[in-house]
Amino acid sequence: MKVTAVGDCGIDRYVDLRADRPGGISLNFAANAKAWFEPGDQISVLTALGQDREAAIVEAAIVSLGVGAFVAKGSGITPVQYIDHDATGERIFVRYEAGVLAQHRLTGPEREILRQSDVMIATVFTQIVDFFETVAATPSGGLRALDYCNLGTPEDPLRYVHRYAERFDLGFFGLSAMQADVIDALEAIARRAGRLFIVTLGPEGSLALGGKERIAAPAVAVREVVDTTGAGDSFAAGFLSLYARSRDVKAALARGAAAAARTIGQIGAFPAPLVPWPADVPAEWTALKRP
């Protein structure tokens, strides 16, 4: 089985730890897919990186993980996500710089990679939506999944869901149980489009929407929450590793929960060294730390 994660591979910049590590939604997924899919499955990322210090960190991680890589190199920065934490280990999203990924558009050879994929997962968020349009327009050979990091825009909160739901078999959403109105709206869209939507709710578990009835699954308890960064990406990898072969939603939700639980007990979505910031870091990096 060929599994391709398309989109964001970059740097998780921890402003509280004054350190960088490889991350990004697509790399997080691929690293966990390597652990949860079958040993003979081919796991790859398709992304764009700059030609900078940060790109070297990401490329070293790709080699270490043993995943395949289709990397376009651009003149600009590698994507960077700035992260802080609260006292419970919950990630605080500070800022995102899309860098060269925002300017990239799929090439002919990259489109062919998607056409040959048995499982393809992409991600959509506002900063890279023009790049993502080229992904959404490209057919792929098997199961198509989409991680909705943004559901829409301030003017149209569900814009991306309405626009892309019918182009993908599966949608992943990270919400909270307090967002009942949003969950109801997603369920209506999933049923109308004939699609499966998976909603992760942190410690409240997860839901599968789109069938006649919702399917709920509990979260897996962990002894200590260290960092929630990448928990949703890990969940998606665990879920798809089973669902892609069996279409068993309930069992796939349970596996996704197990994958997410493994992730939140460590820094980042997969084991990787923290790279201390250079001595001459810009003052703005330090200034992003929350009081």
TrEMBL record:
Keywords: Kinase, Transferase. It comes from the Bacteria. One of its GO terms (molecular function) is kinase activity. Residues 179-269 form the Carbohydrate kinase PfkB domain. InterPro entries: Carb_kinase_PfkB-like, Carboh/pur_kinase_PfkB_CS, PfkB_dom, Ribokinase-like. Gene3D superfamilies: 3.40.1190.20. Signal peptide: none annotated. Belongs to the carbohydrate kinase PfkB family. This is Fructosamine kinase FrlD. The lineage of its organism: Bacteria, Pseudomonadati, Pseudomonadota, Alphaproteobacteria, Rhodospirillales. The gene is frlD.
